[in-house]
Description:
The chain is an alpha/beta fold and about 350 residues long.
Amino acid sequence: MSLSANPAHFVRLEDLSDRELEDVLDLATRLKRGVSRTDLLGLSVGLLFFRPSLRTRTSLEVALHQLGGHPVNLNAASDFWELEARDARLMDGVAPEHIKDAAAALSCYVDAIAIRPALAGKSWAVDRQDEQIQSWVQHSKVPIINMESALWHPLQALADLMTLRESLGELQGKRLTIAWTQSPTPSSPAVVHSVMLAALRSGMEVRVAHPTGYDLDDEVLRQARELAKARHTTLDTGMDLRSAAEGSHVIYARSWWSLQTYGKGSLAAQRGARQGTWCVDDSVMELGDQTRLMHPMPIRRNLEVTDRVLDSKHSLIIEQAANRLHTQKSLLSLLLRH
Length: 338
Ligand code: CP
């Protein structure tokens, strides 16, 4: 897949070649400095949310307005209904419409469709297949943009790469620690998967700290190990927080579900994890090398990361949020001008 494919879908960051990724980040930097573009004049983009969003929805709507385009915002909870993703089903269940038909119809009206699909939340083996977004890709005549599926959050990874470069300059050889944090409302590992691959692709040394039972997706880890080898860097997983933070340039905090006990929120593994110390505080930050703190938000203060760290000059979380706008404008410009 690439930006020049027809239609060009953006489901994971790896859909961009190295050259295209550089183009997106270069244009994002120019847009942030105030360059004005109206590449989307007369174009409309559907934003379909099957789960809530604060940043993704707002930054994409504003990005479209600033590029001269028009967002069509559709919330599954209030504006339409569940859609069936599986083919050849007797559709006598909850969903009154198949993605095949919804995608064909919407392709007549809009120039791209961005989707944050629902997660069934019962089986990781099922959710990890990203069936809904893959069905949209299969049936849409216009580009599909992933606004966070079970497996990937490429829009977040784009903004995070821009933020990392702004803060650290050259990323080759810099150390990024992804730190699992405690939260009663964890997320899918989508952000962490995308950021891990983006950092390895940039030659960063990546460590992942998490409690026992919170390993990332097996297949994504296999891809990450291959990438680390290809980019002559390292990946260490399953570390404790303090060992992983030692010498790190960046700590990327995020809470994610145990994939071993996915869909069974009250199991012992999750209770056990909460007993440990999985909060990023000053003592963790001080183990690193002028460590910066990143987190995609929403963030639970003093549970995942302390106020002192979040309100310090080392926190990049608002820069990350700001860069969502610039990178998404850049991506939309380059994706839709084809
Ligand atoms: N980081 C992120 O995607 O935020 P939202 O869930 O608010 O969109």
